[in-house]
Amino acid sequence: MLSTFLAYLQFKLGAQFDNSGHAISDTSWSAQLQGSERLWMLLEGTHVLTLMLFAGSILFVDLRLLGVTFKNTPVSKVTDTLIPYTVAGFIVMLLTGAALFFANPLEYYHNVIFRLKFIFLIAAAANIFYFHYRVQANRAAWDNQAKPPASARRAAAFSLALWIGVIVAGRFAAYDWFSCDTAQGFVAAAAQCSERSVTLAAVETELAP
C-alpha cells in the first residue's frame, strides 16, 4: 500500500529509535527537513524561481506557436534558443519539488489538489510528447509561417492551459483548505482520506512509547 510506504518515509526513514525499537517522533529525515527553516526556504525559493524559468520559456514557445509573438522568427529558432533553459529549469524544479514532497509525503499524497496537480502534469507531459512526435514531424513545412497550422496551435493552447493548471494547483496544494482534516464527501473520497486515517493510526501505535 502506497500510504504505508509514504508513512515510512515521513516518520521512520533516518529516525532515531528508543530502547524498545520505536521510532522517536520528529527525528526522521522528513521531519528534520520540514523543521529546517533555512533549508526549506532555500528549496522552496529555488523551486519557485526555476518554475518561473521553466514556465516562462514554455510561455514564449507556446505564444510563438499560437502566432501571437515573434511572428517573423522561425519556430525552430525560438524553440532551439529556449529549450536549454526549459530543460535546465525543469530538472532543478523536479529535484526541488521532490525534496519538498519528501518533507511531508503522506499529507501531500492525500491532498486532492496535489492529485489534481499530478493529473495536470501527466497531461502536460503527454501533450509535449504528442507535439514533438506528431505535430512537429513536418515542422519544416510551416517553420517560417507567422501562424502555424491548427494542430500546432491546439498543442500550444493545451500546453498553456495545462501548465497554468499545474501552477495554480501547486500553489493551492500548499494550503490545508482541501486537506483530509477538513475534507468531506467527494473531496475526502477522491483523496482517500479514510486510508490516510488508517495509516496514521497505525503509525501512532508504532510511535507510542
From TrEMBL:
Q: Keyword set for this entry?
A: Membrane, Transmembrane, Transmembrane helix
- Stored Pfam families: DUF6644
InterPro entries recorded: DUF6644 (IPR046586)
Q: Please verify whether the record's keywords include Cell division.
A: no
For the DUF6644 domain, which residue ranges apply? 46-174
Q: Where are the transmembrane segments?
A: 39-61, 82-102, 114-133, 154-174
Instruction: Note the superkingdom of the native organism.
Output: Bacteria
Name the record gives this protein: DUF6644 family protein
